[in-house]
């Protein structure tokens, strides 16, 4: 599968969140009169929705017929981030501009932990609520603290059987021991596909390779996986 890069538009959005608002951006195909599948993405503990990896993936998604909704949530508390994610989910479902039928949730590092936690909550309410989960650099444990992997992976392991999950991690990620993560995947009930980026760090940087070439490879993995989900 090759990425087809078509024209896309992007709108900046303010998502109501309690007494505040979350900054968000909606990237979508320029030529489409309607889009039925959306992907929500958010960043890790540092940065914001304009982190280059998220922007690159959002543009690739929009260029291939999907709506991508990414948002900023600066809180480092996971429960707070999950609440923010739920607010974005509710906002997206209420959009009048598109008829969204399928929603994937995902993110980078702590952002994908929040996505997995939300998917687990929503799946308890409705079996077909979430179409799939995209985990970029899942933070299985803090650096040199592998004992935390059980607690960190609780929501991943709690995802239901019907839910497809894509995990993209670097083989040199100091926050995701490969042996421990593969053991976690074996315990998961959900249908998991793991792509190991050779030489990739937690930031998915690879020595000797340009950032753009790595991003293109990661984006292609996401698109290929999504095409298998019947979208």
UniProtKB/TrEMBL annotation:
| Stored InterPro entries | AB_hydrolase_fold, KANL3/Tex30_Abhydrolase, NSL3/Tex30
Q: Where in this chain does the record put each KANL3/Tex30 alpha/beta hydrolase-like domain?
A: 37-218
Q: Which residues cross the membrane?
A: none
What is this protein's record name? Answer: KANL3/Tex30 alpha/beta hydrolase-like domain-containing protein
Taxonomic lineage from the root: Eukaryota, Metazoa, Chordata, Craniata, Vertebrata
């Amino acid at each position: 599968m090759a990425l087809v890069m078509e024209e896309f538009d992007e709108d900046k959005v303010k998502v109501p969140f309690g007494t505040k608002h979350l900054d968000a951006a909606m990237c979508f195909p320029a030529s489409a009169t309607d889009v039925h599948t959306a992907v929500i993405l958010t960043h890790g503990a540092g940065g914001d929705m304009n982190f280059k990896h998220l922007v690159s993936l959002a543009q690739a998604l929009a260029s291939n017929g999907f709506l991508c909704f990414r948002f900023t949530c600066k809180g480092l508390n996971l429960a707070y981030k999950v609440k923010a994610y739920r607010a974005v989910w509710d906002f997206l479902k209420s959009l009048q501009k598109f008829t969204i039928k399928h929603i994937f949730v995902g993110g980078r590092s702590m952002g994908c932990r929040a996505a997995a936690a939300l998917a687990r909550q929503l799946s308890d309410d409705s079996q077909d609520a979430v179409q799939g989960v995209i985990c970029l650099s899942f933070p299985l444990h803090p650096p040199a603290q592998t004992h935390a992997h059980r607690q960190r992976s609780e929501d991943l392991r709690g995802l239901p059987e019907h839910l497809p999950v894509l995990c993209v991690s670097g083989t040199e990620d100091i926050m995701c021991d490969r042996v421990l993560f593969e053991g976690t995947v074996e315990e998961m009930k959900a249908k998991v596909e793991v792509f190991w980026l050779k030489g990739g760090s937690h930031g998915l940087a690879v020595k000797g390779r340009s950032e753009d070439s790595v991003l293109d490879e990661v984006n292609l993995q996401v698109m290929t996986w999504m095409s298998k989900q019947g979208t």
